[in-house]
Specification:
Helix content is about 40%, strand content about 15%. It has about 300 residues and is an alpha/beta fold. The protein has an 8-stranded mixed β-sheet with strand order 3-2-1-4-5-6-7-8, sandwiched between helices. α1 crosses α7 and α3 crosses α4.
Length: about 300
């Protein structure tokens, strides 16, 4: 048997890039897939059912099960209808993969309010809204005595972990997704739901402009930047095998899988009383000397 036989999976932003690769990988491993994509451009403009339906057609042609959904994941009722699509089409929901997003890059000093709001909305609210409605279903199942074995897999980014010059809105949203993941993992475990996040590096519509040279496909051999390299870990995290893993962030690039080590309590000094400002210069210098050097911001 495949790892995901009989499981029902929602993948958002699944019309292209990473989401498409995830949807195809889950279907190939036996899952029924709700392929969500609103069909917008890289900057969030436009819209249409074409990309989602094309992926569905590809899955069905290969003998799999899939349905298309074009809901806006950052719209409250749209996120609810996405969960309903899974339940009405396949009778259950086991995995939610949050992947949808777009870019509106600008240096912070030039960024408009609209550019900030749009990116925060689709990435951060789009993750929360789908999680909230999926958890409403899973919590009801648990309270009815049908404990779920469910998974949420969120999509952060190296920009969210380290920062990225010219992408302050995107970096803030992706950092927020990490915090949301950690909080949700702590809250949802009692209902049989694990929550993890990825920070993938791959060639997609959102990365090809910023990293065109380094992310070009090779003429031959292993394509380290292919989005399909990320999907095996997503499928494993969506399977029953991953039950003991929650509240973690994984980085994936090519054939490399690693665990991102986030904020930890670091070196400290305790005076046992209130510090005077004039005392803190050497104290802070000593603490920074003992602490690990931060990873540089991308593009700095």
């Amino acid at each position: 048997m495949s790892l995901c036989d009989g499981r029902v999976v929602i993948v958002t932003g699944a019309g292209n890039g990473l989401g498409r690769a995830h949807a195809l990988a889950f279907a190939a491993d036996g899952a029924a897939v709700v392929v969500n994509d609103i069909g917008v451009g890289l900057d969030g403009s436009g819209g249409g059912s074409g990309p989602a339906q094309q992926v569905v057609d590809e899955i069905v042609a290969s003998g799999g099960r899939a349905v298309a959904n074009t809901s806006d994941v950052a719209d409250w009722s749209g996120a609810a209808s996405l969960v309903s699509t899974a339940l009405e089409s396949f009778g259950r929901l086991d995995v939610l993969v949050n992947n949808a997003g777009f870019l509106r890059d600008r240096m912070l000093a030039n960024m408009s309010e609209a550019e900030w709001d749009a990116v925060i909305r689709v990435h951060l609210k789009g993750h929360f809204a789908t999680m909230r409605h999926a958890m409403e279903h899973w919590r009801a199942e648990a309270k009815a005595g049908r404990q779920p074995d469910a998974r949420i897999i969120n999509t952060s980014s190296g920009a969210g972990l380290m920062g990225s010059i010219g992408q302050g809105n995107y970096a803030a949203a992706k950092a927020g997704i990490v915090g949301l993941t950690l909080n949700a993992a702590a809250e949802f475990g009692r209902y049989g739901v694990t929550v993890n996040a990825l920070a993938p590096a791959a060639r997609t519509r959102m990365t090809e402009g910023a990293f065109a040279d380094s992310m070009a496909a090779p003429a031959s051999g292993f394509d380290a930047m292919a989005p399909e390299n990320v999907s095996p870990l997503v499928v494993w995290l969506g399977s029953a095998e991953s039950a003991g893993v929650t509240g973690r962030v994984f980085e994936v690039e090519g054939g490399v899988v690693s665990v991102a080590d986030g904020w930890q309590h670091g070196p400290r000094r305790d005076k046992g009383a209130r510090w005077a400002p004039s005392e803190l210069g050497p104290v802070v210098s000593a603490l920074l000397a003992e602490a690990p050097t931060p990873t540089p911001v991308y593009g700095a």
